[in-house]
Amino acid sequence: MNFNRAIILGNLTRDPEMKTLPSGQSVTNFSIATNRIYNDKTGAKQQTTEFHNVVAFGKLADIAGRYLSRGKMVLVEGRLQTRSWQAQDGSKRYRTEIVAENMQLGPKGGGSNDSFGGGAPQSGQQNTPEIEEIPVIEAEPDFGQESAQGTEGGVNVKDIPF
How many domains does the chain have? Predict the structure, then answer.
């Protein structure tokens, strides 16, 4: 059995580019940046950014082209695909991209902490966005190790019904 699945959550680095194939099918290309925050060997926080090329076809391409713009947060689920072509200088070029199969738009207003439902501020309140820090979940080194009490990661294996 083989499995090819990519799930990313990040912000668009540029506005989507919409095109129509000769067959009449819509295609939209865009790029998403994802950040990774970690502690290095000295304990100092480090941040790295990865850039992902995404392509969407059909109705999903129309939705992406209509509702996405630079800076907006989006969750994309799809498969990895590498395509190749002959460059003008004669060299062979490759590009690995995520072919979107499912997409969930982020909150209104891009990466801010606006809710999906939006809504007007209550009387007497100002509509000033606050920066919401996304929690960092780090894997514990002993995760999945069975303890002397017969539990794995806080779950008693005897309580599992199968």
Answer: 1
In the block, residue with structure tokens 């902490």: 113
Q: How many helices (H) and strands (E) does the chain have?
A: 1, 8
**pLDDT (0 to 100) of residue 107:** 82
pLDDT single digits (tens) 72-109? 999 999 999 999 999 999 999 999 999 999 999 888 75
Cβ proximity of 76 and 97 under 8 Å:
no
**Does some domain include residue 65?**
yes
CATH number of the structural domain spanning residue 18:
2.40.50.140
**Residue 146 maps to a domain:** no
- Residue 14's DSSP bridge partners are none
d(CA 153, CA 97): 35
CA 65 to chain centroid, in Å, comes to 17
**Domain span at 8:** 1-109
